[in-house]
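Each record in this resource describes a single protein on a pair of labelled lines. An example record follows, reproduced without changes.
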Amino acid sequence: MFGGAAVPANSPHLRKSGSRTVVYDHDEYEVENGVEEGLLYPLEANDSRGGTTPMSASAIMPSPVLLWRLKVLFFLIWGFICCKIGWDSVMRMSADKRELFLYEAFLYFNPLLLSALMVWLWGINLWVFAQGGVNYAKIFDLDLNHLSHREIWKCATWMTIIVPTSMTAYIYLYSRGEVSYAASQPVLLYAAIVVVLIFPFDIFYFSSRYYFLRTLWRILFPLQAISFSDFFLADILTSMVKVFSDLERSVCRMVHRQVATIAWLEADSVCGSHSVAIPLVLVLPYLFRLNQCLRQYKDTGEKSCLLNALKYSTAVPVIFLSALKYHVFPDKWTNFYRPLWLLSSVVNSSYSFYWDVTRDWDLGGFTRIFKFSKPHVFSHMLHGRRWVYFWVIGSNLILRCTWTYKLSAHLRHNHLTVFTIAALEIFRRFQWIFFRVENEWIEMNSKSHIQLSPGDVSSDEEKLLHSIN
């Protein structure tokens, strides 16, 4: 997620934002801002003797602009074909069977679609950081081979192509009675993803995969000092509990051979709604983040770490009180447990919203909104505009409440509503990343300035540092 393919020497991540990219090659062409001005490479028609030179292979290659347009065209054609095949296949099914099948197909492919959405938005985060001059590689302690936003978007593109294609094949085969072949589609897809992640050879962005898996291991077992990337990824995982919940149910059906069946609808099914594994999976990301906060308190002794741990602990009663609906009588749930669930939801939403604004973003008292007479250091980005703060604070409050509502295990059958809320939560996290990384970047710069005393640098060096910062 953070590291990856090799970056060329003129990468925007290794130079000042806005500078010009120049490729020093006498046989090629000059590129400005990564986009060619013509559709074809210029040809050297005359040599020093006035003659002609043979046309090289690179001279007849189309420009990246044309290739990009062709890729977009093929992508749209592919999307239309998938929608057409999927719609015709669904219409072949009987009306009573159609809804149940679509719900099952949704559970298999929904977590992968949400993951693809998160990767697309993460690429946008990196692009904005690169444009704004935020050294995110330093913040996340990445090496020079980290993935840029272009490589991130390339991965997201492949995810966006492969997952819907597999889903279309699943629907197509099932509608024509090929149940066994249809059941193999999600199994092969999940197996392929696992193989790509753990592939031990230096292909498929090996350094990125290793960095991602190593960070996950540090989240599962916080036996060392917690770095920024550790709790940053753990925070993102708390916004993707819907993905983990559906993954658990999908893998459970694959193991028990319930793919492309309706056996999981039975209440006593091991993968049914009464399964205790569902609330356990929902609560795991919050427990991981809770352990990280306790580890930070052990290392630093700061009481704010305990307050942060308390914030994550407020999500536990929301999840388990909701799960009790499947294990108690309806009257008892309505009269006793539901009011407790509502109260715990309000506490969790309010506490989380307060922590986002005052601690993660350092917007205590909304000082940046009402004190714009002195522009902020990041005013050249969107952060310096007042409407951005009003929007992100208001939307964060609303989406915090809706996400707490989604943590309710008794809503798991409202799949379209749950998918919408899960996608909105990923969008909220996408907004949160901008201000959280900005705040961390400001703190890093402040610490570096404190460490440099006036006697350590000359007047000329001090002016240079001031102009750079």
